[in-house]
Design a protein that fits this description.
The protein is of the alpha+beta class. It folds into six domains: about 130 residues, no CATH class; about 140 residues, PH-domain like; about 90 residues, PH-domain like, CATH 2.30.29.30; about 110 residues, Helicase, Ruva Protein, domain 3 (Orthogonal Bundle), CATH 1.10.8.270; about 140 residues, Cyclin A, domain 1, CATH 1.10.472; about 210 residues, EF-hand (Recoverin, domain 1, Orthogonal Bundle). About 50% of the residues lie in helices and about 15% in strands. The chain has 42 helices and 26 strands. The strands form six sheets. It has an eight-stranded antiparallel sheet with strand order 17-18-19-13-14-15-16-20. Helix 15 crosses helix 20 and helix 30 packs parallel to helix 42. The chain is globular, with a radius of gyration of 36 Å. This is TBC1 domain family member 8B. Interacts (via domain Rab-GAP TBC) with RAB11B (in GTP-bound form). Keywords: Calcium, Cytoplasm, GTPase activation, Metal-binding, Repeat.
Length: about 1050
């Protein structure tokens, strides 16, 4: 294949390469040890060393270099896996290039021509690469190898595959990397040595691109405490992106259902494709950059120039088209970008064929002229058709009218239509206070900006916009700009009347969320006059309750009340609702749920940034977890909870424009400002005090708010000893020093750290479960750890290939630790057949159902880890009496308990409390409490014993012992019946026997002559058989069973 020309150094390369052919301008080389005169393994090792020592070399054993006679510089331009492939490239160069090179005079021109030609060939190959990638025949062959090598269930969907090297220790294994929906697999077979690796995506702790002394660039995967490195990939970046997407997809589907349910494009695990993942990633990046609703997908991209009126020149960039939006971003992404909702487009003028240009007319007398658009006619047609679809009666109104009308359709009188700050602190126009004058100057600056760059949804976003944001937004414009920058203005426009309907529907509802909301209402900015009145409290209640009703998966979480209070101060009630939607569902994903995963991920990102930007602080405080704990409220409340309100709103301004990047920058600036004090502190408490005093000293000298509205400091009242810090200067310093942090890098860091955060939470859950269960069983901690991994894997096996499994539908991370992972009967039967010690329960044996029914204590059709381990503990470590009692109870009828295998419905907290109380009061069951076993049940009990003993070295002796016990029990029962015959009508024992028979009724009328046995009789008889006692008291090696189960778990699923 042709390679992008790269300069290489040949000083030591001739020791690793042999020249096969050469001429005046080109050299064809073969790696030593490969091909004639060398073995395959030698060729692989030499090739690997070559890739390690020479960053420009590829995995292929043949290459072609370009050079000129008067230059010592060589350029790699092609490589090949086989000699036939590289010879084809060589012949093409001889026939098409060599003659042309003779016309050039200088070596620079020759090299420039060759490089340009090779780049052209690569571009042509790139056009055809998609066809090759989707070649059905080639992919079918790869899928057959995938199924043969890894023996995964046929439902497992192969997404893509790559040739690469896997580093096992210091030795690389050349093979194939297969990426499927649920697994990362690698296979290599060299000289009789087979390497096979299967890692499920949900087991990965870390996934990142790395480079070190040995590996110039590789992909690092951490799973089960082991490091795995994959290198020498031809398309390493593409491979990494696909791996990252599959890991994220698995995390969302299996651990974080709240996020996954918002991804309809990836709802079916059997339909995931490489092309689908790439399209989803592009759409996600598109929505994030332009702050668009989740329903939007990137449909078309056009490269073009846009005439920028305020700069009077054309800027190069890309037009991005979705279902309802036309967006443009300049090439560097920061110079300018614009978002045009299709509902705002009033006309598309006829395209100009000479400059391939079209003009889009937007309401508000704005026109956007795009030029040099390759397919300009198609773009114009698409915009026209989409505008026709999106057209609404509101199009006849002016832009100013739309701003007022949108979302207010059918507004209820109960909904506040004014921002609380307008009600409780109206601006005095005649006030000539210096602060008010400065506020007016800010408003004038923004009005000038609006006149140049536009106002409303079609405004240009530029560097100047950010500069104005950093200086502070005027009080009067804050709500409007928050709506614009967050994208909430589009949400509200697309859902007119939605909020009013929600308020009416949620009015009077009583849930756990509404109870928590009522408790926190009066804790939300209690110092502010707006929330000392019923007006503010009622508006806050309506917004929070409506959101809890809209999104019950989140419901209500602490910190939402503080954030919503500030939103209500500057935005109308309905606008505050949509701002809350934008924050919770787009800008701070997964922040406001019970596990606050999003906040923990961003704290991990924050730690990484501290290491990069504040090394002096890192050297002093090696454990950065302190900053995670102290900064949690910074992220959850956007600094509102630690800064005075008049200063915090400036931070919120930056957040709505730049997203989480603004919070990270400010956090770094705060730590740097207090660097010297933090370095000298001796413990965490002192550091907390330093930061608290600092936040108390932050002021907003330009705030026009009166003292009654401004928030008093909550820390040390002795502020005279600590000078003040102006919030505008602090924010400006944060942008100057840390403005280089790019949003794209933050998103990459988020993805990288999310795996580690999720797995850390999962590991904490596991440790808590093991700690609880270890008090009930005799397994060691390491054995419980392996059992938990098997149990959790079995839970996931029911989720990998379907979205409708009971285990997945009823998985709720907010439940108690023991209840988070549970098995239905089908999953239980598979795992129990792998781990039970005597192989008496096959997956299709009804006895397996009896075991499930017995250990499912709450009869909900799901077995948790504790119930499962307690059953195994009896079978492995219980006394002879306990093991026998377990087997005896298996054959008792279920009585009037109905077992439903459909899984748990809505969580009943009262039921949990009652169950917990019953477990506390539960008494130890004695053998006298067990009912008698009847004739049919005893026969089945005997059959179970026979199946347990089957295959044992002493099988014959055990069978004879069971037969002897059965005969003895029958004779005892017969003698007992004869003794009772004369006094059957008056004997109390007879009535007891009769009542016990009644309690054991299984639907058939038992004759009065049918015999039955008590557990004491069965136990006493079996104790007289030493061979049986020895069998049950013989220890079983659970460690071996665990190893076998781990190896067979997936295969058993395959065979089912």
């Amino acid at each position: 294949m042709w390679l992008k020309p790269e300069e290489i150094l040949l000083k030591n390369a001739f020791k690793l390469w042999v020249t096969e052919k050469d001429n005046k301008y080109f050299v064809l080389q073969r790696r030593r040890g490969y091909g004639d005169g060398g073995g395959g393994l030698t060729g692989l090792l030499v090739g690997t060393l070559d890739t390690v020592l020479d960053s420009t070399s590829k995995v292929a054993p043949y290459r072609i270099l370009h050079h000129t006679p008067d230059s010592q510089v060589y350029w790699s331009i092609a490589c090949g896996v086989t000699k036939e492939e590289i010879v084809q490239h060589w012949d093409w160069l001889q026939q098409n290039i060599m003659r042309t090179l003779a016309v050039f005079d200088s070596s620079e021109d020759i090299t420039s021509f060759v490089q340009g030609k090779i780049r052209g060939l690569i571009a042509e190959e790139g056009k055809a690469s998609l066809v090759m990638e989707d070649d059905p025949e080639k992919f079918r062959e790869a899928h057959l190898r995938f199924e043969k090598w890894f023996e995964l269930p046929p439902e497992e969907k192969l997404v893509t595959y790559y040739s690469c090297s896997y580093w096992k220790g210091k030795v690389p294994c050349q093979g194939w990397l297969y990426l499927s929906t649920n697994f990362l697999c690698f296979y290599s077979y060299l000289l009789g040595s087979e390497v096979k690796l299967v890692i499920s995506w949900d087991e990965i702790w870390r996934l990142e691109k790395t480079s070190n002394v040995l590996l110039t660039e590789s992909i690092h995967v951490l799973a089960h405490g082991e490091d795995h490195y994959f290198s020498m990939l031809m398309h390493l970046s593409e491979t990494f992106v696909i791996m990252e997407q599959l890991a994220d997809y698995s995390i969302k589907r299996l651990f974080d259902k709240e996020a996954f349910q918002r991804e309809p494009a990836l709802s079916d695990p059997l339909q995931i494709t490489k092309r689908g993942l790439e399209a989803h990633a592009r759409s996600e990046q598109f929505r994030t950059f332009f702050r668009l609703p989740r329903e939007e997908n990137l449909l078309e991209v056009y490269e073009s120039f846009l005439w920028v009126p305020f700069s009077h020149f054309n800027t190069l960039g890309k037009i991005c088209l979705s279902e309802n939006y036309l967006c443009f971003a300049s090439q560097d992404g920061s110079q300018c970008h614009i978002i045009v909702p299709m509902r705002e487009v009033v006309n598309v003028e006829n395209p100009d064929s000479s400059s391939r240009a079209l003009t889009v007319c937007v309401r508000g007398k704005t026109a956007l002229r795009f030029s040099e658009v390759r397919d300009y006619q198609r773009l114009a047609s698409t915009i026209r058709s989409r505008c026709g679809i999106s057209a609404s009666p509101q199009h006849s109104a002016s832009s100013e009218d739309v701003t007022l009308m949108v979302g207010q359709k059918g507004s209820s009188k109960a909904v506040s239509t004014e921002a609380l700050m307008t009600v409780f602190h109206p601006q005095d126009v005649e006030n000539l206070d210096p602060k008010m004058l400065k506020e007016k100057m800010k408003e004038q600056s923004w009005n000038i900006h609006f006149s140049e760059y536009g106002r409303g949804t079609s405004m240009f976003f530029t560097r100047k916009t950010r500069d104005l944001i950093v200086r502070g937004v005027p009080e009067a414009l804050r709500g409007e700009l928050w709506m614009l920058f967050s994208g909430a203005v589009n949400d509200m426009a697309n859902h007119p009347g939605y909020y009013t309907e929600l308020v009416e529907q949620s009015l009077g509802t009583s849930t756990l969320a509404t109870d928590e909301i009522e408790r926190d209402l009066h804790r939300s900015l209690p110092e502010h006059p707006a929330f000392q009145s019923d007006t503010g409290i009622s508006a806050l209640r309506r917004v929070l309750t409506a959101y809890a009703y809209r999104n019950p998966k989140i419901g209500y979480c602490q910190a939402m009340n503080i954030l919503t209070s500030v939103l209500l101060l500057y935005a109308k009630e309905e606008e505050a609702f949509w701002l809350l939607v934008a924050v919770c569902e787009r800008m701070l994903p997964d922040y406001f749920n019970r596990r606050i995963i999003g906040a923990l991920v961003d704290q991990a990102v924050f730690e990484d940034l501290i290491r990069e930007n504040l090394p002096q602080l890192v050297d002093h405080m090696t454990d950065l977890s302190f900053f995670s704990s102290v900064s949690l409220s910074w992220f959850l409340t956007l600094f509102i909870s630690v800064l005075p309100i008049e200063s915090a709103v400036n931070v919120v301004d930056c957040f709505f424009y730049d997203g989480i990047k603004a919070i990270l920058q400010l956090g770094l600036a705060v730590l740097e400002y207090n660097m010297e004090a933090l370095i000298t502190c001796h413990d965490d408490a002192e550091a907390v005090t330093i930061l608290s005093r600092f936040f108390d000293s932050v002021t907003n000298k330009d705030s026009p708010l009166p003292p009654t509205v401004q928030q008093a400091p909550v820390g040390n009242s002795d502020k005279a000893s600590h000078f003040n810090v102006d919030i505008s200067e602090l924010i400006r310093g944060a942008y100057e020093k840390y403005g280089h942090i790019r949003s794209e890098e933050v998103e990459k860091s988020r993805k990288r750290n999310k795996l580690h955060v999720i797995q850390t939470l999962e590991d904490t859950t596991k440790q808590n479960v093991i700690r609880v269960v270890s008090q009930e069983v005799r397994f060691s901690s390491s054995q419980l750890d392996e059992l938990y991994n098997l149990f959790k894997r079995q839970h996931f096996l029911s989720c990998y290939w379907t979205m409708q499994s009971p285990a997945l539908l009823h998985h709720d991370p907010s439940l108690a630790y023991l209840e988070q992972y549970q098995l239905g009967f089908q999953q239980f039967s598979v795992l129990f057949s792998l781990l039970e010690p005597w192989a008496f329960c096959s997956t299709k044996n009804p006895l397996c159902f009896w075991v499930f029914r017995l250990i499912d204590e709450n009869q909900d059709g799901l077995v948790n880890f504790k119930e499962y381990c307690c059953a195994l503990d009896i079978l492995y470590s219980g006394s002879f009496t306990n093991k026998l009692k377990f087997l005896f109870k298996l054959h008792l009828p279920p009585g009037d308990l109905s077992v439903k295998l459909t899984g748990r419905g809505k969580v009943d907290l009262q039921a949990y409390l009652k169950q917990w109380q019953n477990e506390i009061l539960k008494k130890e069951e004695t053998i006298k409490d067990l009912p008698r076993i009847n004739q049919t049940q005893f026969i089945q009990f005997s059959k179970t014993l026979y199946s347990i003993f089957h295959g044992d070295p002493k099988e014959e002796s055990l069978y004879q012992a069971v037969a002897h016990v059965t005969s003895l029990l029958l004779r005892m029962e017969e003698v007992g019946r004869r003794l009772q015959e004369p006094s059957t009508s008056t004997s109390p024992e007879g009535s007891d026997t009769s009542s016990s028979h009644t309690s054991q009724d299984v639907g058939a009328d038992l004759s009065e002559t049918e015999w039955s046995f008590s557990f004491e009789q069965v136990l006493a008889s079996l104790l007289n058989e030493p061979v049986i006692v020895a069998f049950f008291e013989r220890p079983v090696d659970i460690q071996t069973k665990l190893g076998q189960a781990k190896a067979a778990q997936l295969k058993l699923k395959t065979n089912k």
